[in-house]
Amino acid sequence: MRPTFTRSYTERAGKFSNPAARQLLEVMARKQSNLCISVDVTLKGEFLEVVDAVGPYTCLIKTHIDIIEDFDQDLITQLKNLSSKHDFLIFEDRKFADIGNTVVLQYSKGVHKIASWSDITNAHAIPGPSIITGLASVGVPLGRGLLLLAEMSSKGSLASGSYTEGAVRMARDHRDFVIGFIAQNRMEGIGSRGFEAEVDEDFLIITPGVGLDQSGDSMGQQYRTPFQVVAEGGSDVIIVGRGIYGGGVDIPTIQTRAERYRAEGWKAYEARLK
Ligand code: 5BU
After folding, report:
1. Residue 22 pLDDT
2. Is the CB of residue 208 below 6 angstroms from any atom belonging to ligand 1?
3. 129 and 105 in contact (C-beta within 8 Å)?
4. Atom 15 of ligand 1, nearest CA residue
5. CATH value at residue 238
6. Which residues touch 47 (CB under 8 Å, ≥6 apart)?
7. Range of 208's domain?
8. Please, how many CA atoms are within 13 Å of residue 169, restricted to the half-sphere of its CB?
9. How far is residue 68 CA from its own chain's centroid?
10. Ligand 1 neighbourhood includes 28 CB (under 6 angstroms)
11. Residue 71 has pLDDT above 80, yes or no
12. Is residue 170 scored above 90 in pLDDT?
């Protein structure tokens, strides 16, 4: 059987029943972009300015909505307008980690009402399957998708080995809602027979810790290049944050960097299809 990561994004889009996964793969093919941009800035005006500037180069804008100091509902209206204007999906990197009843409230209520605007969100596997069923009760009727954290990019991460296997097994039981993983490697076959090519399952792999010019930061972040992540590791989407907006640079520089990462990510994808 041909391994998932050697199939095109378009071919894979048709196999997903989850609407968010299908739309993401379709946008990626349409825009020739497997670049998710993490816009971790703390003011609404700057956030929207950066999103508008990088919109053309990205398939997915990743947010940490709780770091925005002057958050209001208009930010969400404008973000959704930009997602239509530039044709990208929205991923709130919320990393839910509580019991089912609590995550239902955190996902749907409060100031941010994440489920109402975020196509994709993510959760830790640590609470067990009830975190998925809780989030799914809100997200599935809205056509949302969930990524489980199977691995992390930070030094000394405890998410490895049997923990990662447990996360994959949880995902397999909830294929309508769990569309893939935040991970550093592909996950098909993990925790089952162990032979990737024998297992015909497809999970999206979204990978943070991507940088072309640095190997890490002073707080444990570790970077690999788009080629290492996509061509060698088989990941589907690269997440880049400070590599694009970092260093207090102007908007044209941010756009130049976004296009550089888009081109590198796409080149790595084309290389692995061959
Ligand atoms: P950076 O500026 O490219 O280092 O930002 C990476 C982003 O991805 C940042 O928002 C993190 O919260 C996020 N992230 C990560 O870096 N590593 C992980 O394992 C996970 C998320 Br999960």
Report:
1. 98
2. yes
3. no
4. 208
5. 3.20.20.70
6. 39, 41, 68, 75
7. 4-273
8. 13
9. 19
10. no
11. yes
12. yes
Dump pLDDT digits (tens) for 234-253: 999 999 999 999 999 999 99
Distance 8 CA to ligand 1 centre (A): 26
73 φ/ψ sector (left φ>0, alpha ψ -120 to 50, else beta): alpha
| 153 is annotated as contributing to ligand binding | yes
**Is 242 a known ligand-binding residue?**
yes
Domain count, the chain: 1
Q: Is 85 within any annotated ligand binding site?
A: no
**pLDDT per position as a tens digit, 2-32:** 788 889 999 999 999 999 999 999 999 999 9
The model scores a pTM over 0.85: yes
Encoded tokens for 167: 């996360």
Q: What is the pLDDT of residue 157?
A: 96
For the cut 70, the answer to whether the pLDDT of residue 94 exceeds it is: yes
Ligand 1 pocket test, candidate residues 36, 37, 40, most atoms within 8 A of CB: 40
Mean per-residue pLDDT, 106-134: 98
Choose the residue to mutate in 90, 163, 207, 221 for probing ligand 1, maximizing ligand atoms within 8 Å of C-beta: 221
pLDDT in tens, 175-222: 999 999 999 999 987 866 444 444 678 999 999 999 999 999 999 999
